[in-house]
Amino acid sequence: MKPWGLIAWAMGGILALLLQTTLLFKDAWFVQWPASQSFLTALCEWGVCTIHPYEKIDAVVIDHAAIDWSGEAQWVFQLHLRNSAFVKVATPWVELTLTDADDKPVMRKVLDPSAWGAPKLMSPGDIVAHDLLLQLKSNELGFVGYRLLCFYP
User: How many other C-beta atoms can be found within 10 angstroms of the C-beta atom of residue 63?
Assistant: First the structure.
C-alpha cells in the first residue's frame, strides 16, 4: 500500500472520530458554545439525533429541604434546588426516602419535576422550590429521617 493510501485512511479515521465525539458531547457543546447552534442543529438533522438539555448533576445543589407535620398522617415536604453552574442545566428528578430509627427505608417516592411545575431548564443561580403534601398509609408507619437524591432518568 502506498503512503498516500495510509494517510487517507488515517484522515478518514480522524474525521470519523471527531464526528462521533461531537455527536456524543453535543449537549455540553451546545451549552458551552451557543454560537454553534446552527452547526449542531444541521449535524443532528444529518445524524438523526436531538439536542437535549444539558444534564450535569454536580451543578444542582439542594439548598433547603424540610419535612413538617401538618396533621393526621400528613406531612409537608419542602425542597429548594439551586443551579450552581455558570450554564443552564436540566432540572433533575428527586428521590425522597423516608427512613426509620435504624436508617432503613420506610417509604420511597420519586418526584418528576415536570409533574410539580418545575421548568425544564435551570438558569445559572436559579432556585426551584417545591412543596409536596405527603400522606402516609397508616399512622403506625413512623419515620425518623429522610434521604434525598437528585438524578437524571
Answer: 13
User: Within 13 Å of residue 88, how many CA atoms lie on the same side as its CB?
Assistant: 14
d(CA 75, CA 69) in angstroms, rounded, equals 5
Cβ pair 114, 151 in contact under 8 A: no
Domains in the chain (CATH in brackets) are: 3-47 (no CATH), 57-151 (2.70.50.60)
Q: What is the pLDDT of residues 76-90, one digit of tens each?
A: 889 999 999 888 899
Q: What DSSP element (H or E) covers 6? A: helix 3-24
Reported as a single tens digit per residue, the pLDDT across 98-141 is 888 888 888 888 989 888 888 998 999 999 998 888 777 666 56
Q: Which amino acid is at 23?
A: L
C-alpha cell at 52: 437535549
